[in-house]
Amino acid sequence: MSDDPHDRDAHTHDHGGGHHPAPLSPVEMRARALEELLTAAGIVDPTFIDGVVNAYERDIGPMNGARVVARAWVDPAYRGRLLTDATKAIAELGFGGPEGEHMVVVENTPDVHNVVVCTLCSCYPWPVLGLPPNWYKSPAYRARVVREPRAVLAEMGLVLAESVEVRVWDSSAEIRYLVLPERPPGTETLAEEELAALVTRDAMIGTAHVAARHGPISPPPSGSTSPPRQQTP
Amino acid sequence: MSDDPHDRDAHTHDHGGGHHPAPLSPVEMRARALEELLTAAGIVDPTFIDGVVNAYERDIGPMNGARVVARAWVDPAYRGRLLTDATKAIAELGFGGPEGEHMVVVENTPDVHNVVVCTLCSCYPWPVLGLPPNWYKSPAYRARVVREPRAVLAEMGLVLAESVEVRVWDSSAEIRYLVLPERPPGTETLAEEELAALVTRDAMIGTAHVAARHGPISPPPSGSTSPPRQQTP
Amino acid sequence: MNGIHDLGGMDGFGRVVVEAAEPVFHQPWERRVFGMLAAVAFTRLTSAHGYRHAVERMDPEHYLRAPYYERMMTGLATLLVERGKLDRATLDARVPGGFPLAQPAHPNATSDAEEIVADTRTSEASPRFRVGDTVRVRDVQPRGHTRCPRYVRGHRGVVVRIDRPFTLPDLAAHTDRDHREPTYGVRFSATELWSASAATRDAVYVDLWESYLEATR
Amino acid sequence: MNGIHDLGGMDGFGRVVVEAAEPVFHQPWERRVFGMLAAVAFTRLTSAHGYRHAVERMDPEHYLRAPYYERMMTGLATLLVERGKLDRATLDARVPGGFPLAQPAHPNATSDAEEIVADTRTSEASPRFRVGDTVRVRDVQPRGHTRCPRYVRGHRGVVVRIDRPFTLPDLAAHTDRDHREPTYGVRFSATELWSASAATRDAVYVDLWESYLEATR
After folding, report:
1. Same domain, D113 and D94
2. Which of the 8 DSSP states describes residue A170?
3. Could you read off the pLDDT of C78-109 as tens digits, one per residue?
4. With an 8 Å Cβ cutoff, are C68 and A134 in contact?
5. D46 φ, ψ (degrees, to nearest 5)
6. Whole-model pTM?
7. N or C: lower Cβ tally within 10 Å for chain A?
8. Within an 8 Å CB–CB cutoff, is residue B83 touching chain D?
9. Best mutation site among D195, D211, D217 for testing chain C: the one with the most C CBs within 10 Å?
10. Does one domain contain both C91 and C161?
């Protein structure tokens, strides 16, 4: 049970024991009330919740998309399949499921930069990127990136040359988009696994380039109550 | 000084004396800070504020517009001038000033019903109607009355026949609108002053008809700290 | 609906705030809410369309104030109350001050959706437009759920991709009708959408159901 | 700007709540704020255009949450800080947690406004359109102040009234330029704006500066 975030969090208030937790905030009270009523109604099984949450904190995240990208960089035939039928090519690596049933991959080149948004809600390709970060769900990003993508990207640290065509993809229907970033120069000698470690979440959304330096893979560190993560899956 | 709402309100906290007022709310603190700094900077004179506020609580209100309407009902020549050059005709009765410099009067008939809104802010003809009520400034009214005026009016108690043409006037530029309501039947024997007492604020915005019964003139009763108002100006 | 959720092209929201090394969940209650949504989706108690519309119907000020998982919780609870799976009074009684739910759907939501479909001849089998066609987004204003964003309505774009028929959200959010239509990827130039001075090379790609589109004259 | 203030045609705000026998002011602080606005307007420290834009630039969630006179206070304070009449730090120091102001104007506000005017040939002396003319509202998207509501952009209407030239708010809110143009009352049928099923007799009348309009082809 020590790996169960539920049993170690604020919801243990009522479970007795020696904890002295802070009082519940209004939103915590609502969440608890809803879970208790849905559990009592047989609609929700708390162990199902635990399993789903664990999966998205540990197994489903941008390290999956990074494997897709690295494979496309080293294997031209795979890249071809990925750009033709992304859902199928991604499934080859074992990834699929909710919010990933209808995938399209858009490829960055020296002349074209792609960036993804969902202006109407926060659609996002969960199987390859996990759950979206807060900025992706923020009104500021959703409102502005379709209107002034260059300004938004520059604020986020990505300055694009005038000559580059910016393509913003609004996930308004059932397709979910993954950006295939450019392979950085100076990575010719790296193995597929090493390449995957370079690929960040933001590069696959389109708000960053991939750098040749070996940095930590971007999120998720999965919250204060979870064990530390490996940098590569 | 007993008529001065300023000196009898929560702003007396710092003025010493024997009051034991409630602590200031955040918005009250902001208002006080702003007034003190603007007064210190010589931009605002508290007695000027008192004078303006008193004017809008006592002298400038829908009783002015009601006089315009009643005159138009009894004097066809005045009605003609009002519909041709409203600003000038309203000035004949002594009304004018901020938010009333460019007036247009729109006339209700058995076939046409007019209603006024300001979707972008809350523009309103102050000299003839005073300051607007909260519902006129609410997002719900501003958003909906241009889209579904009949539904909004029905919710407010005014059900219009299908055969009536509804004209919604959005005060988006410099013109301010006053609705000239229909004179109710059964008022043929009333004097101009008695007619004015029938005319409500809402009838001059276009969210109500004028009833022949002598009811209280609609707002303003001017807040808890002000003396009771006459029903007719 | 022309709702608060339809944010594309809105001004006034300031800078995008990025949190470094952001965790998947920030608070334990967020985990529970996400898990509940997954459970409800898994049991097919609702479609994504109905769920999205419930979130959209939140009081606009609450929508902007609430973090993502609070919006999720509000939409989920609203939907389950509306579907008779939860009792509102019981829910309210569990939370001091009550459990805020979204507004009801607009009374004309279904008829507005039906009007949109009735206006076009869509066919699951044969897409009406081809890749390369210039199309115009219909300037429709349905008061129910729609996935036709306001910022492209009335604008011209070019079809870049034809996707398989998907269920039209407008009807599915309000009825049991699984009306399927071809869906298109449409490219809109930035100059078409925003102004002649926009970066001329740039473009926005929006995915649109066939009922949202019309041929250009 | 496509701001939160541009509410015409938005859905999701629920019923109009009417207070019976409403007083002119509900709280003493509201009186003071209104009086301050009057004093500042009287001394011509700002134009109505600059003031309105300051209110529009409030954080959207704050805009929806704040009652009218709090919006007034926020816009007024923002403007006076921006014009150097008030020191922001001094203001912040007087209120626990600081004094919330509106966001700065968009960096492209002035250039967007200039682009709108440059596109049309307006003349104070000779109105370009006549009563009875059918006109189309230009589908402009300026990021600064404008009085061209989003819900009429791209739509056709008929000129019903020509008003005297008034100062164009788009430029006046951001510059010292007192650019005057004829202003028109324009009638839009409900079917043109909303849908074929709208009440066919009904219409919305919107007052629009000449730069917002174009001839129909």
Report:
1. no
2. E
3. 999 999 999 999 999 999 999 999 999 999 99
4. yes
5. -150, 160
6. 0.91
7. N
8. no
9. D195
10. no
